[in-house]
TrEMBL record:
Gene3D superfamilies: Alanine racemase, Lyase, Ornithine Decarboxylase, Chain A, domain 1
Keyword Metal-binding part of the UniProt annotation: no
CDD domains registered for this protein in UniProt: PLPDE_III_AR
Catalytic activity: L-alanine = D-alanine
Similarity field: Belongs to the alanine racemase family.
Protein name, as recorded: Alanine racemase
Length: 373
């Protein structure tokens, strides 16, 4: 039996993705990375903006190298962009070499088992199938250990295999003065000495924006493409890509001493007018954006004025204080700006004690999506 699709009425929250801003962000980063190829990281549904639409826009802007996390993401990009060069950062899943070969995907090989399986596929096809070699230079995430470099070199030399790229990943690039950055750059350089003439890639968004020594032959921007802050403590020069609005459901009066929301976390200190907005944590508006007696929460914008969140964010709704709008009260159906020209993803991230990445990738809510170019 076929399960019917959920109907869309267009009456709920609206997520607008500015593909023109996405293109301009890639082009701006490409100008910074002169001398290196500029890829595009499109994992996690292109940071919540829509994988197919954003990949097309980035390709139109000039990107030719794309980085996904999973094979499923990579297959989607391949169906969308037949001529793109696609790396899979999660590497080679066991037994999946035929899929990667058939879809022309390049795994970021990060273990000896992955490398062995890939080399066997090369031998079976009598072909040097492109892949990246991913070395761990201090993050203790995916990657060959540094002491495995000689083993890796011996394995590829034995069959005359030449990798497409040597790569690693920075742990602290968002803090440019962190000693870890210099350490990882030195370790990565030492690895490259064992693989002469192979292109290299180290810089993420923050590395690209702060240190030309980290550019090598390819840079891999992610968060900066989508308008998020890549470098802590600096003005974010990137254009915002997403706008999120949600409708007001009701405006009502509440009295001094009354509590607001679950857990009675917020008690009113004045007679107030409150608005209930149709967005909640089920839509990616994190519960960490709540307020309490001792903590300021997030803000929204209604009628060009900032209004604070009152109490805990619910699954489907959030309450805001519109008292200071005076007689200029909103009406049900009007839209509140959640993310947009007045409130960036990083402001919400700072309030919730997280990072803009989580705010963006959490935008999987019950939105009417539209794309501008």
């Amino acid at each position: 039996m076929q399960v019917p699709a959920i109907a869309t009425t267009g009456l709920g929250a609206r997520l607008t993705v500015d593909l023109g801003a996405l293109k301009r962000n890639w082009q701006a980063l490409n100008r910074v990375s002169q001398g290196a190829l500029t890829g595009a990281v499109v994992k996690a549904d292109a940071y919540g903006t829509g994988l197919v639409q954003s990949a097309r826009a980035l390709y139109a802007a000039g990107a030719r190298f794309f980085f996904t996390a999973t094979p499923d993401e990579a297959v989607t990009v391949r169906a969308t962009l037949p001529d793109a060069h696609i790396f899979v950062l999660d590497g080679l899943f066991p037994g999946a070499a035929a899929l990667y070969v058939g879809e022309r995907l390049m795994p970021a090989l990060s273990s000896l088992d992955m490398l062995e399986e890939w080399l066997q596929a090369c031998l079976a096809r009598n072909e040097s199938l492109p892949a990246a070699l991913h070395f761990d230079t201090g993050m203790n995430r995916l990657g060959f250990r540094l002491n495995e470099a000689s083993v890796v070199r011996r394995m590829i030399t034995q069959i005359g295999y030449s990798p497409q790229m040597i790569m690693s990943h920075l742990a602290c690039a968002d803090t440019p003065a962190h000693e870890k950055n210099r350490t990882q750059l030195a370790l990565f350089t030492s690895v490259l000495a064992q693989f002469p003439n192979v292109p290299a890639s180290l810089a993420n968004s923050a590395g690209l924006m702060t240190n030309r020594e980290m550019h090598f032959q390819m840079v891999r921007p992610g968060i900066a493409l989508y308008g998020g802050r890549a470098v802590n403590g600096r003005r974010n020069p990137m254009q915002p890509v997403v706008r999120l609005e949600a409708p007001i459901l009701q405006v009502k009066e509440a009295r001094t001493g009354e509590s607001v929301g679950y857990g009675a976390a917020r008690t009113l200190s004045r007679d107030s007018r409150i608005a209930i907005v149709a967005i909640g944590y089920a839509d990616g508006f994190l519960r960490g954006l709540s307020s309490s007696q001792n903590r300021q929460g997030a803000r929204m914008v209604i009628r060009n004025r900032f209004v604070p969140v009152l109490g805990k964010v619910s699954m489907d709704t959030t309450i805001v204080d519109v008292t200071d709008l005076g007689p200029d009260l909103p009406l049900p159906g009007e839209m509140a700006e959640i993310i947009g020209p007045n409130i960036g993803v990083d402001e919400h991230a700072d309030v919730a004690g997280t990072i803009g990445y989580e705010i963006l990738t959490g935008l999987r809510g019950r939105y009417v999506r539209s794309y501008l170019d």
